[in-house]
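Hi, here's the filled form for the chain we discussed.

Project: internal
Contact: R.S.
Residues: 64
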Amino acid sequence: MIIRDEDIRSGKPVVEGSRITVGDVTERFYRLGRSLEDISSDLGIEEEEAEEAIRFYHREVVVY
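And the returned structure, exactly as it came back:
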């Protein structure tokens, strides 16, 4: 689950229970071309959490 809390990373959306931001995940996915498996291993989160961060990015951040 992705949450926002002003006390964690200045309110940026993060993976619940961590300080990993949606931006941390999407940068690795889009800019660095890392797989979800690699991202989850690199950041210490579940692959499903990395996938949810990307879904959140498209739902809440990207403006078409």
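Let me know if anything looks off before we file it.
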